[in-house]
Amino acid sequence: MPNDAEAAADRNAAIEQVLFSIDRQLLTGGLRLTMVLPLLATALAFLAWSVATSSAPPSWWEASIRPTLKVDFAWALVGLQFAVLLTYGLMLLVHRVRVGLSVLGIVGEVDSLGGAHRWVASSHGYDMIEEAMQRSMRATTTSLVLVISALLCLAVELVRSPLSAVGQIAHLAGASFVLLAFAEHLGRSGRSFTSSTETGLLEAYDPPIHPSALQDVFDEILLTAMDPLLRAKYEAFMVDLLELRKPDQDLVTAKEKILALQWMRCDGQIQTPQLVEELAEVLSEEGVEALRGHPVFTPDVWTRLFDKAATIAPAFFRMMRRTTERIRTGSLHGQQDLLVDVDMANIVDGTTGLFTYIRNLDDTPRTVVLRMQSPDFRPQDLALTFHLPAGEQESVLGSALPVAGEGDEDVIGSLVRLLQKGTTSWQSLIPDRSGDSTITVRLENEAGDLLLGRQINTRVRADARTRIRRGTVVACATVGTLGVLIAAAQQVTGLLLG
Hints:
By secondary structure, this protein is of the alpha+beta class. The protein has 15 helices and ten strands. The strands form two sheets. Strands 1, 2, 4, 6 and 8 form a five-stranded antiparallel β-sheet that branches. The protein has a five-stranded mixed β-sheet with strand order 3-10-9-5-7, with no helix packed on it.
């Protein structure tokens, strides 16, 4: 029985992989036939209605085509609309089967990880993934039912003639069902997901929470960006990998350096030969081969992970690029015995993140207050107290270093060391209005005296794509509902008066 279950799972995975490729290239992505076909069917519906209600059909049709086909121009347009709508229904059916197989594969992976005592289903964010999957299945099923209803209406119209009263009512109902199907699929289908790739849930996942004070900075940001399924695999992978580190390597430092190296490779700052050399300073030869040949965390998966993290925390990675460039050119300097950097997204669509890095360069502990003030964001006044341990003058300050080299006296080693010895803060800010906005960041001592200050100017704008999508959904749903009600009222009136 287990072998039969595994064979069935493998067969479903193979079918899903094929259907997902078709879906991504033709249906919901690429040509986007699930959007083009219903719009084409709606356009044909209006054209057929215009021809059916006109005084005379086009002369070129009557002279050249009707003698051969023996049908009216309006009937031909409705027949073409029926063919387009039938194709749309088949596309939705393929998409629905693919979504069902994806959900089956994801649930199977979650159950198998639960059997290995990695409880993905209880992780933060998994309920959102479940809701997204169920919403997508419900929306596609509802759209398919509405398309079938539209096809039945068009079949009645073709049988009774588009010029008849019954045909006109069926035509109105069919066009209305198409608009409702389009609105349902567009509004509730959600983001794409699949179990055929290791990063198949990343697009559908929005992290519900994130840490405020980052300790293992790269690790915590990546964990925030990962969906629960990939996060469980990542945690198991890092445990096994770090057991293969060299004896003189600290666990946290080794993990942060490995992740920093992967980010720099994805960002184009180092090449693969340099990456391997730097990894060899942290991991044993077996560990390097385990990382490079891992079946899940391939270079493509690392790239997708950091791309996802960059969409969640763009300011952090811009701050990291600025820091690595300053280390490389020897232009990294402190002020007031503090090394401070602040960054925030230049253009804000919804909630944004403000990142602050603080490093004490004095040989005595310090307590500082980080205050963020803005009339354009919520919270408008936020104060955080940080107890900074005793530091030391960092050798990297003012020294130009190579990107990679022997030991930790290079950009990579210096970046990891700075992050570990400093304090990184990640605060979410919610804009109150659109347009140009300003936020002031003040670093004060316990007495309230200003140590350092920065002002950040940014632009807040609405998500145009989301607004257009929602507006289209509302318009199609409204017109479709009205059309169905009018068609039903006309039919009832005809029955009562007939």
